[in-house]
Amino acid sequence: MKYISTRGIAPALSFEEVVLTGLAPDGGLYVPETLPTFSKEEIASWAGLSYQDLAFNVMKPFVAGAVSDEDFKKIIADAYATFRHDAIAPLVQTAHNEFILELFQGPTLAFKDFALQFLGHLLDHLLKKRNQKVVVMGATSGDTGSAAIEGCRRCDNIDIFIMHPNNRVSEVQRRQMTTVLAPNVFNIALEGNFDDCQNMVKASFGDQSFLPEGRQLVAVNSINWARIMAQIVYYFYAGLALGAPHRPIAFSVPTGNFGDIFAGYLAKKMGLPVDQLVIATNSNDILHRCISSNDHSKNQLQHTLSPSMDIMVSSNFERMLFDLYDRDGNAIRQLMEDFKSGSMVLKESALSRARELFTSYGVNDDVTIDVIRDVFENTEYLLDPHTAIGVEAARKTRRRHDIPMVCLATAHPAKFPEAVRKAGQDEDPALPHHMTDLFEREERYTVLPQELKKVQDFIAANVRK
């Protein structure tokens, strides 16, 4: 299988090349040239498979011979071996036909573990085979960083540099990153917001001349196709558990960078009967404004109780637009140029197509707290603030009540004690056993100004020989 850029200029790449490249040289994101599809009968035959076996079936067509079946099964098995729940992605019912898909059972308590544990083991396999060393550079609004570090900390051929916005992630999120003292792990606290971090990553991928000779950058942000690919699996897993493909299913997704919900869109195109996808946003509601009123303009970024969604530039939305514009790279390049100036307007035919599947809703901090409190009072189930936004958006925009609505729980509530306390809990949620000493561990990170050269100089100086 070949992969092409959303901007239509960069050459097509193989799976191995696209995993190691990240952002396309023309500034676009890679997507499969053709998408594999599964018949209703084939999907039905997967009922009862373990998460690992299902992952192999769903992802195998994308790998297309780049990794042997035996090696690919081992990569998958190793990726999910550290998850705390045997189901990997268990479902919990919170109301009539409303379910929570717990995506926080991995080692860093966030849904990013699904993709980044997999990507870490995949990179390790590919780099050993190629006898190659690389530099991973990533930006995080909270959860990507710790999951990427956990996935790469034991990789001999990777030096990993993660930027987070200084003082704009929760203390648990920060400590999960900064207390990993492995020699190949470097944390940068940037004096800026997540979009500033992400822009530096994109600029660095565009010009890698600052790196030592023989090194290249590899992306762990959701611009890396392998992350999207791994996230498709849990849509199939939840769907099969709740009656698919014999009945349709809906999903509500707390949305920041659009990668998670784009995976749901791909699951539908591959054959899963997805009836509705809810784009759930916080006060940084650019995607909600886009879908609801064709207003894709940048506002001032707000710091909220759901920091992983404090994003104004949703990189993976470009992949969605590529499909909505019939894979016209010229049109996407123009849209992205428009957005650089502050806003872009979608053509009505594209917006209409999006609205056939997607609905959207924005939830502020006050409502988020109310939802955490109300759900706990009714069910004794404690939501984190991101998941609470997904639940509220699902309840406000739901089209059908006769099919299951699955709300993706993207993080463990222990990562966001401030929101939980504001919702009326007397004590902070307990951290899982493997993290009980988190606040006692030594931290190591470097605060840097919002200057690209200083960040790049720091990376160049710390890459191991």
From TrEMBL:
<dbReference type="Pfam" id="PF14821">
    <property type="entry name" value="Thr_synth_N"/>
</dbReference>
<protein>
    <recommendedName>
        <fullName>Threonine synthase</fullName>
        <ecNumber>4.2.3.1</ecNumber>
    </recommendedName>
</protein>
<feature type="domain" description="Threonine synthase N-terminal">
    <location>
        <begin position="2"/>
        <end position="80"/>
    </location>
</feature>
<dbReference type="Pfam" id="PF24857">
    <property type="entry name" value="THR4_C"/>
</dbReference>
<dbReference type="InterPro" id="IPR036052">
    <property type="entry name" value="TrpB-like_PALP_sf"/>
</dbReference>
<keyword id="KW-0456">Lyase</keyword>
<keyword id="KW-0028">Amino-acid biosynthesis</keyword>
<dbReference type="InterPro" id="IPR037158">
    <property type="entry name" value="Thr_synth_N_sf"/>
</dbReference>
<dbReference type="InterPro" id="IPR029144">
    <property type="entry name" value="Thr_synth_N"/>
</dbReference>
<comment type="pathway">
    <text>Amino-acid biosynthesis.</text>
</comment>
<dbReference type="InterPro" id="IPR004450">
    <property type="entry name" value="Thr_synthase-like"/>
</dbReference>
<comment type="similarity">
    <text>Belongs to the threonine synthase family.</text>
</comment>
<keyword id="KW-0663">Pyridoxal phosphate</keyword>
<dbReference type="InterPro" id="IPR051166">
    <property type="entry name" value="Threonine_Synthase"/>
</dbReference>
<dbReference type="InterPro" id="IPR000634">
    <property type="entry name" value="Ser/Thr_deHydtase_PyrdxlP-BS"/>
</dbReference>
